[in-house]
Write a structure and sequence with these properties.
heterodimer; A: mainly alpha; B: 2 domains; 25-stranded mixed sheet; about 5% helix
Chain lengths: ~270, ~350
């Protein structure tokens, strides 16, 4: 039986008591889907740690308090949706210039951070684990006369999950691509070209996975590939945004331009 | 109440984490041009002028287990572990443009107790659009020191440093030799080459387009990643492995631990484990259009639902295997979309 999400959260951030952590570790060692989820949670914690620290607008605290209140009331799912809406609203405000940011530079940083976090939150909000549905299907169903129907339902369920996950990943990717493309001049041309070339490699892999799923919708390797390639693309786009942030920081503001100049001169 | 990752993200996204108080910088030494410019007068190309250089040299007492960080924009960083407790910094500013450009670049050394931060700064207030100055660093640190190195455009080489090492370059190679405690080695377009790692913790090595190679590695966990480069680790022992590449191949040559967990995820590359006397593992392998092959005698097994699914969709799209070797104590999970999966004996 899989641990619940809260337990895996606690395990991922190291806040679980040692005896419980040991138990979860044993399960995670043998359960690919839970291990992937824990890996994702740890990646989020790591990525969150890399984000710039910013002073919050007062409005943000109200939203967070509201989210906490909702969670305390036990409306966990509703709370998560409110949090996501708050993030999206915050992002819109920042992009449109209606945020409380005192200066364009500060607003800019928050916009990137908001978008990066939005993507992570979106991905966590609906995570697809190939094969989990099949594993979860009761074995007894296979023994009764409805085996064929159950298998068909399970396959349909998996395909539905996949489609939903795909939509979320695509939305997340779209958001990050907008940032990366709009701010790509912060990178020197060769670095930007390297990143674009590798994004194209991932896009090709995504196309191949999709083609495989079209030909064999129930193929677990094809489903798994598609999801992994989405995750890889998001990771690369996040790295790109992080790199842009680095380039914008302090003295490195003109680094890309300098690097570009150096390369053009052949030094 | 515990902050869940989702809430943490929402808070971060809204900019809700208060800015942490920065350590107040202590005495900051800014060195403009310590030594007069020297010319090499080598004319190496139609669009290049003679190389102008400006040398910088400084020695500081660091302590045997001090920490050093170097941030460079363009140019190589070479760091070597040495005897004693002194930090030696030699840097050369170079340009083939106007000599006056050298003055627009300065090397800043922030010297605090047990810690030295070195960075290259370009004076962006001047007309530096065509600035063509690079800075090459040659640094000797006490062997036990920890180093953190970042370069935008330039290679990084670290040799004989026994403390923790973190090295990142955007467009250069990252190479470490005889550096047991590499924690992070990362590049966007360069290769990452590591050797002589012996760390109780975790090692993360990645490149976007370059290859990642590691030889002589003993670590608790290895995290390897690339988009289009190959991942190759040899003479390796680790308890946890996570390797991902889209178009690159993966090869692991060495030992797997009892109870170890090894995950490999590729798209078009071949995954190859060459194992030295493994006590046992449970293998979960699948590939859409590749083949699965093992030189070791495996006991084929798996859950019934999965097996039935495989029978129903035999052929391309469902080449999957669950199998056990020996005591089955380690867990190998290998996925590649179109590459092969190979388990071999060393």
């Amino acid at each position: 039986m899989h641990p619940n999400e809260e337990t895996l959260n606690a395990y991922a951030d190291g806040s679980l008591p040692a005896n419980e952590a040991a138990e979860i570790e044993r399960h995670v060692a043998s359960c690919v889907s839970c291990r992937q989820l824990v890996d994702d949670l740890r990646e989020i914690l790591r990525a969150a740690g890399d984000l710039d620290l910013q002073d919050p607008p007062a409005r943000a605290w109200m939203r967070i308090e509201r989210a906490i209140q909702l969670e305390q009331e036990g409306a966990r799912a509703e709370g998560a949706r409110e949090g996501a809406r708050a993030v999206q609203a915050g992002e819109r405000d920042l992009v449109s210039g209606h945020g409380h940011g005192p200066a364009a530079a500060g607003r800019y940083g928050r916009w990137l951070a908001a978008a990066a976090a939005l993507v992570l939150a979106t991905v966590v909000g609906l995570r697809y684990a190939p094969g989990r549905s099949q594993v979860a299907a009761p074995a007894s169903q296979a023994r009764d006369g409805a085996a064929q129907a159950s298998a068909g339902d399970a396959a349909q369920s998996v395909e539905n999950e996949l489609r939903q996950a795909e939509a979320h990943y695509e939305n997340a990717i779209k958001g990050l691509e907008q940032i990366a493309n709009a701010e790509q001049n912060a990178l020197d041309p060769r670095t930007a070209a390297t990143l674009q070339k590798n994004l194209a490699v991932i896009d090709q892999a995504i196309s191949e996975s999709r083609a495989a799923i079209r030909s064999q919708p129930a193929s677990e390797p094809a489903q798994q590939s598609l999801i992994e390639n989405f995750k890889t693309k998001i990771a690369l786009l996040q790295d790109t945004v992080a790199l842009i942030n680095e380039m914008r920081k302090g003295n490195e503001a003109g680094a890309a331009r300098i690097v570009s100049g150096l390369k053009q001169k052949g030094n | 109440m515990r902050l869940t990752p989702l809430m943490l993200l929402a808070a971060l996204a809204a900019g809700a984490v208060p800015a942490l108080a920065q350590d107040a910088p202590q005495h900051i030494v800014v060195v403009h041009q310590s030594v007069g410019a020297a010319r090499t007068a080598a004319y190496q190309g139609r669009d290049r002028g003679p190389e102008q250089t400006d040398r910088f040299s400084r020695k500081l007492k660091l302590g045997r287990d001090g920490r050093v960080s170097i941030g460079n924009i363009s140019g190589d960083i070479v760091v070597t572990g040495g005897a004693g407790d002194e930090l030696s910094i030699d840097a050369v500013k170079r340009t083939r443009g106007d000599q006056s450009q050298l003055a627009n670049v300065r090397i800043t050394v922030d010297d605090r107790a047990g810690r030295v931060d070195v960075r290259t700064e370009y004076d962006m207030s001047r007309s530096t659009r065509n600035n063509s100055v690079s800075v090459d660093y040659t640094v000797t640190v006490p062997a036990g020191a920890s180093v953190e190195l970042k370069s935008v455009s330039g290679s990084i080489k670290v040799t004989g440093v026994r403390g923790a090492v973190r090295a990142e370059s955007v467009s250069g190679d990252v190479t470490t030799t005889d550096t047991p405690k590499v924690e992070l080695a990362k590049s966007v377009s360069g290769d990452v080459t590591l050797s002589g790692i012996q760390i109780e913790g975790d090692l993360s090595a990645s490149s976007v387009s370059g290859a990642v190679r590691a030889k002589g590695v003993k670590a608790h966990s290895l995290d390897l990643g690339s988009v289009s480069g190959d991942l190759t680790v040899s003479d390796v022992t680790c308890d946890r492995l996570n390797a991902k590449s889209v178009s690159g191949a993966f090869e692991y040559s060495g030992n797997i631990s009892r109870g170890g967990v090894y995950d490999v995820n590729l798209h078009s590359g071949t995954a190859r484990f060459v194992l030295a006397n493994p006590t046992g593992f449970e293998l979960t392998a699948n590939t859409f259009s590749g083949n699965i092959r093992s030189d070791l005698p495996l006991t084929i097994g798996g859950d019934r639902d999965r097996d039935r699914n495989n029978r129903e969709h035999r052929g391309p799209g469902n080449r999957a295997m669950r199998a056990t070797f020996g005591d089955g104590s380690a867990t190998l999970t290998v996925h590649t979309f179109s590459g092969d999966i190979v388990i071999a004996r060393r």
